[in-house]
Amino acid sequence: MSETTIALVTGANKGIGYEIAAGLGARGWKVGVGARDDARREAAVEKLRADGVDAFGVPLDVTDDASVAAAAQLLEEQGGLDVLVNNAGITGGMPQEPTAVAIETMREAVEVNVFGVVRVINAMLPLLRQSASPRIVNMSSSVGSLARQSSTDDALTVGPVAAAYSPSKTYLNAVTVQYARELQDTNILINLGCPGFVATDLNGFRGVRTPEEGARIAISLATLPDDGPTGGYFEEAGAIPW
Ligand SMILES: NC(=O)c1ccc[n+]([C@@H]2O[C@H](COP(=O)([O-])OP(=O)(O)OC[C@H]3O[C@@H](n4cnc5c(N)ncnc54)[C@H](OP(=O)(O)O)[C@@H]3O)[C@@H](O)[C@H]2O)c1
Q: Could you tell me the CA-to-CA distances from 59 to 25, 97, 219 in Å, in that order?
């Protein structure tokens, strides 16, 4: 493994993922910019490098086995992997009332937000296992919290009624807990983060936080000390109820 900490951020060409890459790069880490579109990826890498980040492009479509396998190979050539941030995500498009949602919309959300994360983690695990302090951060959302979505307090039932996006994050939460259980006797810490309501393409820029603010929770979970938590679900203010 390399002396330098190496991170991979998926969906890092824009939005919160770009700012996570910038924030980790500002710590002197080498950062793989995972993105599926060549032009968008190269533009992001150039911008990060112009800001002094040791960035490199990683062609990556999280729904594609071959693409993910090639990304793992590229990381190995770059010196390995210490920190994986699974940030890539989609809503599937709104509206998504359960009485009218297209099954295909639900399938697409789960393909990217859940199966995509599993595919990337499992491909990267052999590299992460060689790291002294491996971390996995899965970008979830507080709309995946069943406790909040089923609350009678309107302040907690945030986001639109959404039968594809919100349950896909609940599913991601559940899978992450299972990873934490399986990996509990290793040095790998795996946690879920919610960035808050951030102005990005994902929500037509209606969010109230900046992508830089949204990136903070992922950066803090990516830089946890060795005795940090695992299997947790956090926003900046603290733990989120499941
Ligand atoms: N914005 C919010 O308020 C908010 C709130 C809670 C949670 N989140 C979560 O935060 C994460 C980042 O969201 P964001 O707001 O920054 O969204 P965004 O600006 O739409 O960025 C999403 C990123 O994911 C990438 N992506 C989508 N499908 C992909 C695939 N199949 N393979 C690889 N990359 C793919 C996109 O790439 P392209 O450019 O190629 O499409 C883009 O880089 C998501 O997981 C989201 O669910 C966001």
A: 18, 34, 22
pLDDT at 154 (0 to 100)? 87
Q: How is domain 6-239 classified at the architecture level of CATH?
A: 3-Layer(aba) Sandwich (3.40)
Beta bridge partners of 193: 139, 234
Task: Return the pLDDT at 2.
Answer: 64
Q: Distance (Å, rounded) from C-alpha 87 to C-alpha 222?
A: 12
> Whole-angstrom distance between the N-terminal and C-terminal Cα of the chain?
36
Helices (H), the chain: 15-25, 38-50, 65-78, 103-110, 116-128, 146-149, 165-182, 211-222
- Within 6 A (CB) of ligand 1 lie 10-11, 13-17, 35-37, 40, 60-63, 87-90, 112, 116, 139, 141, 194-195, 197-198, 200-203, 207
Q: Choose which residue among 8, 10, 14 to substitute to test ligand 1 binding: the one with the highest number of ligand atoms within 8 A of its C-beta.
A: 14
Whole-prediction pTM: 0.98
Give me the percent of the chain exceeding a pLDDT of 70: 99
**For the CA of 197, the nearest atom of ligand 1:** 3
DSSP 241: P
Q: Taking phi first (over 0 means left), then psi (-120 to 50 degrees means alpha), and beta for anything else, what does residue 28 get?
A: left
Token representation of residue 90: 């989609």
Q: What is the pLDDT of residues 13-63, one digit of tens each?
A: 999 999 999 999 999 999 999 999 999 999 999 999 999 999 999 999 999
What's the rounded mean pLDDT across residues 103-128? 98
Residue 233 designated active-site: no
The amino acid present at 12, given as its one-letter code, is: A
The Cα-based distances of 119 to 45, 60, 196 in angstroms read 24, 11, 25
